């Protein structure tokens, strides 16, 4: 098989599985549906691994067209693939996590009536995500971009009977569309000024347009690169849930847990990070755009972390953690450390998928109770889930030698070396974020796996109201005589398989990805202006020295402090968080955090309600009153009035006509006589 | 045979309609249905060679037919298609076939008359798209109103009389001015009703402006452009499902086609001068109507408003003057608008059909009367999801291609045009998916929904054919745009030339 067929087969195999499970799931049954989709994704993963190995062994990267979508004015818009090291790495991450999630789903969705539909959706997602990362042009990128959004929409609303789920999926779609609005305009500017939507052609032309300006507002000139990059980045802000377009991600937890792991942690939400890395030849041309990226990322990294501290729903803690980590990646992009961002994307994909799937396992063990205040002491009952969760959490907070350490420390190093105006704030945000991350991660860890077995108590907290609506679908919480139980092997096997890279991949991949030439020819950095990557290279000599060096750095001790305070607060002295809670409530901070900085209020009561109010006014006043009432029916009435008048003239009485005739004759006579008199 | 394909496209459905009409009373309803189906299918099949035999490299008219009609006035039966009009003949014949299937069991009274009205209308619409003689065009353009008037007035909803009269008068008023315009052009051109002669005719600015105004009233009402759009929601709400499908899929396109065939090439200087008016009205349609659609409580009205908003992209695309001297139409925008016209034919027909499927069961168009339809009609819900996504302009559906091209063209001309137009990404998704959420998602809303049965074979067939069309065009629009290139390039060149000197 030649390479082109392999590249075609990689996305088509999951598509085939999705079509079979989706269209014929009713016919072939559950077992066949999961077999065919898993087989599709497994083929895809196997081939992706082969492609990565082929490229690492010095194989040629591929850039070619599959077919021409349409042609206008001599410009071809194509469907085509670009397979280089960045693509191959993304393909492996996507298909591996997807495969794990497919396996896990067999256990997690075991009782669900929509079993085949679910498998179809997650395979369709895998296809869409692969099309996104494998694209060699902006059009297909946008196709994949929107397609993953569609599947995300379908999966968040998978339990479509729940009002909260259908609210969340609409919200997710619309907020993403706000991002896509910017993205599309950015693509439009690219076509208008570069004359092509093909990556290679656009990137080749970027240097000569570096100083090009456009006049968007009359009398002003803005750098073309800055405007284009910021518009493209707005797309990334939607998809990768950056402040202020982050609001959809926490609500997306309404979807089943496997997709939270696959879509809303490991793959889809990182599409924005991937996209900006891919566009590095453009972003490198604009300091302003990079600074914008840096600041947005820093805000997201720190402020979303704070929200993680007050969450009680196990999935929402992980969701806010994801937001914060996406902020870290964005910060790295802003600092021109694209390789570091992609490196963190990869390590995060493994440990965050692990944490989500472990959370799902806990939820199953707790009989669909998601409130961490009702848990405790689960380590005795769920050994594999416990160990893997601990490994995932340690990786997340940046424990030396674990994967998250290498990527997160590199981000901090990169920001430190950045000279952009926002770098000072960003550095503070990512360093402070280390403490926050460690604190909320281990608050959750201790409350779930250690301490008192809260589920023995009668009065349960309800952090997750949605479940109350469909108790026919899921029994909710543990009964009086129930004990939590470990999940079946199809659930725990993916946990173990994800734990391995969560621990090891950082040390293994750091040399080629951070200091080596893995991303050579793929990611472009203007080293004269942006020294961040060079600084990372200096510090990150090899896995051993970098790990040993960590023990004398600030981030390490901040992480230790975070874990220690979480332990002290929640295991030793639970009255302290209670007192702090009262304190923060009294000064209003708690409310601010609970209301998520009032962003939802702004969108729902401001934009959405405002749009509807304006729509009503335009409809009732513009259409109904003015156009229809005044002009259209007004004209009709005027005609009616006029005809009514003329109708009266035609009375049919001979003496009316005779009278009119005489009147007319007199009038004519007068005019004629008047004329005669004037002449004389 | 190839010599009179266009005549066949016009007269075959009309003849079929007359035969169906001859079956008479509802005693023979099954015969009327089958005859109508056969007639519609045959009429569709005869339009296929228009595509397969189309010469992509030839910009002018193809499949021409020319016979004298009223010799004393030099009026000819002159037919022909080019890359601008060819697809609409096929689309129209295709839609008629869908309409016959859509009304199969649903229409129980005056079946023969119902089917005949659609078949005859189909022939008349084809006539309007292929006529190359101004009077011939005008006859078809006006004659088409009669069957539609009857369809709304006889098989429509409770307020059908108001709606049908409003529809008839609104559109008639507009087109009367076109007749005046044609008569003026007849004298100016020294006694010709050939549209091609008008294209070549030098005209002063004042004359061009007046002609543009006349054409505006005829075609803007039909499109419909804001603010002459208010007949459309009423007509759609009252029309039977088939009527709405044809109205949205085809007759609106005739208005847009008019701009392309008459307004732009006959009055190019005035079109350039006043392009900003068309652009402004189109953008108002996209934004204003988008917001109005958001607050509709009646599904048909919502989709009707969404049609107006989508047609705003078409009129926007046709008046995107750019280029070095600002006198060249933008090819992306024009072709995008044409693609949008075809796509909207599929998507709006599908949306109205979906609403019809639910209406046949529950007899309500109110969003509030539904909820949780997916529980009872999963197959239907899946199809409607696809069409709702196409209506929201999702890539890989036909709804995306046209909007995308128009936006790409608009950015080249003026960033803010594109900015305003791209808001449809948000509004379109908001009104369509919010409706979908309230109607399809959720728990079973009421007893009516609880008793719903999923689609039957006939409905499945219509939905599946439309789904293939929507996806096919979304995944591979190249065959559509390839047909347009030559004619669009010719048009762009023609419109860029001044007629003043």
What does this structure look like?
The complex is a heterodimer of chains A (680) and B (501). With 680 residues, chain A is mainly alpha-helical. Helix content of chain A is 71%, strand content 4%. In chain A, strand 1 and strand 2 form a beta hairpin. Chain A is globular and about 120 Å long. The model of chain B has no long low-confidence stretch (mean pLDDT 90). Chain B has helices at residues 5-22, 29-45, 48-52, 86-102, 111-130, 134-143, 145-155, 160-188, 195-200, 205-222, 231-238, 241-266, 268-273, 275-294, 299-318, 331-362, 373-376, 378-391, 398-413, 415-422, 424-440, 447-450, 457-475, 478-496, and strands at 62-70, 75-81, 321-322, 328-329. In chain B, 73% of the residues lie in helices and 4% in strands. In chain B, helix 6 (134-143) runs antiparallel to helix 8. Chain B has 24 helices and four strands. The longest helix of chain B is centred in the C-terminal third of the chain and has 32 residues, at 331-362. Chain B has a two-stranded antiparallel ribbon with strand order 1-2. A two-stranded antiparallel sheet of chain B has the order 3-4. Chains A and B meet through strand 1, helix 4, helix 5 and helix 24 of A and helix 8, helix 14, helix 16, helix 19 and helix 20 of B.
């Amino acid at each position: 098989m030649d390479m082109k067929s392999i590249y075609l087969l990689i996305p088509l195999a999951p598509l085939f599985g999705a079509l079979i499970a989706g269209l014929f799931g009713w016919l072939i049954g559950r077992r066949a549906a999961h077999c065919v989709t898993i087989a599709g994704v497994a083929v895809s993963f196997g081939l992706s691994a082969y492609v990565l190995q082929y490229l690492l062994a010095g194989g040629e990267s591929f850039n070619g067209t599959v077919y021409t979508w349409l042609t206008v004015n001599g410009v071809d818009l194509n469907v085509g693939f670009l397979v280089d090291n960045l693509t191959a790495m993304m393909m492996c991450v996507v298909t591996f996590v997807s495969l794990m999630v497919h396996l896990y789903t067999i256990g997690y969705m075991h009782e669900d009536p929509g079993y085949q539909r679910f498998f179809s959706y997650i395979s369709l997602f895998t296809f869409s995500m692969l099309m996104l990362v494998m694209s060699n042009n902006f059009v297909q990128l946008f196709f994949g971009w929107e397609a993953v959004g569609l599947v995300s929409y379908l999966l968040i609303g998978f339990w479509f009977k729940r009002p909260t789920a259908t609210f969340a999926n609409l919200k997710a779609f619309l907020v993403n569309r706000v991002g896509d609005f910017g993205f599309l305009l950015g693509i439009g500017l690219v076509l208008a000024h570069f004359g092509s939507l093909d990556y290679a052609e656009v990137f080749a032309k970027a240097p000569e347009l570096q100083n090009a300006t456009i006049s968007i507002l009359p009398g002003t000139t803005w750098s073309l690169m800055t405007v284009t990059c910021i518009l493209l980045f707005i797309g990334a802000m939607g998809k990768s849930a950056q402040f202020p377009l982050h609001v959809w991600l926490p609500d997306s937890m309404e979807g089943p847990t496997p997709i939270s792991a696959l879509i809303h942690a490991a793959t889809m939400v990182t599409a924005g990070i991937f996209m900006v890395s891919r566009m590095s030849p453009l972003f490198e041309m604009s300091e302003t755009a990079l600074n914008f990226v840096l600041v947005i990322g820093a805000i997201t990294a720190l402020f979303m972390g704070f929200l993680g501290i007050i969450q009680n729903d196990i999935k929402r803690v992980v969701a806010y953690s994801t937001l914060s980590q996406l902020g870290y990646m964005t910060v790295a992009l802003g600092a021109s450390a694209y390789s570091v961002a992609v490196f963190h994307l990869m390590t995060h994909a493994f440990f965050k998928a692990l944490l989500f799937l472990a959370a799902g396992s806990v939820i199953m063990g707790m009989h669909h109770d998601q409130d961490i205040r009702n848990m405790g002491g689960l380590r005795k009952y769920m050994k594999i889930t416990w160990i893997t969760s601990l490994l995932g959490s340690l990786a997340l907070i940046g424990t030396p030698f674990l994967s998250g350490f290498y990527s997160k420390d590199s981000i901090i190093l990169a920001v430190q070396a950045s000279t952009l105006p926002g770098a000072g704030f960003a550095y503070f945000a990512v360093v402070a974020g280390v403490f926050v991350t460690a604190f909320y991660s281990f608050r959750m860890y201790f409350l779930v796996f250690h301490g008192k077995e809260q589920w023995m108590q009668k009065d349960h907290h309800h952090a997750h109201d949605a479940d109350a609506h469909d108790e026919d679908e899921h029994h909710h919480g543990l009964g009086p005589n129930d004990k939590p139980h470990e999940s079946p092997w199809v659930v725990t096997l993916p946990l173990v398989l994800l734990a391995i890279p969560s621990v090891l991949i950082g040390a293994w991949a750091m040399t080629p990805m951070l200091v080596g030439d893995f991303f050579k020819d793929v990611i472009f950095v203007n080293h004269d202006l942006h020294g961040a990557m060079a600084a990372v290279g200096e510090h990150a000599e090899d896995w051993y020295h970098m790990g040993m060096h960590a023990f004398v750095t600030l981030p390490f001790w901040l992480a230790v402090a975070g874990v220690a305070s979480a332990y002290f607060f929640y295991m030793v002295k639970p009255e302290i968080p209670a007192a702090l809670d009262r304190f923060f409530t009294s000064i209003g901070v708690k409310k601010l955090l609970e209301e998520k900085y009032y962003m939802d209020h702004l969108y729902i009561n401001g934009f959405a309600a405002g749009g509807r109010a304006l729509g009503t006014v335009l409809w009732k006043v513009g259409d109904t009153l003015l156009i229809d009432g005044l002009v259209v029916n007004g004209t009709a009435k005027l005609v009616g009035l006029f005809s009514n008048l003329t109708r009266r003239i035609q009375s049919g009485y001979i003496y009316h006509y005779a009278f009119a005739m005489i009147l007319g004759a007199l009038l004519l006579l007068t005019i004629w006589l008047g004329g005669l008199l004037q002449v004389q | 045979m190839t010599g009179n394909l266009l005549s066949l496209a016009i007269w075959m459905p009309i003849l079929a309609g007359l035969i169906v009409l001859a079956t008479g009373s509802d005693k023979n309803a099954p015969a009327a249905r089958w005859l109508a189906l056969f007639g519609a299918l045959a009429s569709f099949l005869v339009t296929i060679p228009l595509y397969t035999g189309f010469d992509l490299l030839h910009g002018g008219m193809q499949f021409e037919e020319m016979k004298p009609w009223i010799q004393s006035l030099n009026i000819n039966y002159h037919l022909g298609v080019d890359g601008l009009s060819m697809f609409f003949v096929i689309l129209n014949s295709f839609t008629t076939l869908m309409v016959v299937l859509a009304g199969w069991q649903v229409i129980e009274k005056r079946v023969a008359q119902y089917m005949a009205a659609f078949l005859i209308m189909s022939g008349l619409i084809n006539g309007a798209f292929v006529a190359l003689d101004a009077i011939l065009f005008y006859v078809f353009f006006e004659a088409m109103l009669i069957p539609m008037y009857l369809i709304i007035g006889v098989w429509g909803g409770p307020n059908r009389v108001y709606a049908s009269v409003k529809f008839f008068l609104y559109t008639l008023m507009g087109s009367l001015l076109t007749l005046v315009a044609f008569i003026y052009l007849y004298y100016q051109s020294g006694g010709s009703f050939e549209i091609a002669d008008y294209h070549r005719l030098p005209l002063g600015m004042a004359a061009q402006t007046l002609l543009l105004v006349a054409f505006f009233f005829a075609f803007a009402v039909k499109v419909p452009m804001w603010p002459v759009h208010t007949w459309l929601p009423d007509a759609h709400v009252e029309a039977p499902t088939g009527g709405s499908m044809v109205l949205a899929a085809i007759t609106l396109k005739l208005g847009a086609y008019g701009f392309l065939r008459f307004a732009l090439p006959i009055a190019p200087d005035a079109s350039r001068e006043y392009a900003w008016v068309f652009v402004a009205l189109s953008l108002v349609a996209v934004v204003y109507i988008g917001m109005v659609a958001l607050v509709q409580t009646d599904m048909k009205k919502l989709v009707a408003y969404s049609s107006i908003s989508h047609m705003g992209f078409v009129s926007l695309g046709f008046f995107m003057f750019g280029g070095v001297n600002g006198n060249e139409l933008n090819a992306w925008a024009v072709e995008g608008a044409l693609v949008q016209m075809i796509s909207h034919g599929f998507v709006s027909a599908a949306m109205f059909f979906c609403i019809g499927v639910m209406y046949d069961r529950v007899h309500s168009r109110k969003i509030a009367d539904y909820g949780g339809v997916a529980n009872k009609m999963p197959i239907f819900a899946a199809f409607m999801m696809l069409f709702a996504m196409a209506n929201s302009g999702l890539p890989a559906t036909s709804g995306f291609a046209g909007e995308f091209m128009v936006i790409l063209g608009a950015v080249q001309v003026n960033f803010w045009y594109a900015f305003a137009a791209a808001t449809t990404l948000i509004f379109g998704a908001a009104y369509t998916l919010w409706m979908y959420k309230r109607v399809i998602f959720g728990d079973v809303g009421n007893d009516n929904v609880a008793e719903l049965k999923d689609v039957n074979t006939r409905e499945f067939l219509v939905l599946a054919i439309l789904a293939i069309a929507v996806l096919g065009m979304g995944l591979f629009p190249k065959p559509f745009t390839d047909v347009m290139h030559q004619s669009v390039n010719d048009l762009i060149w023609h419109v860029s030339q001044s007629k003043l000197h």
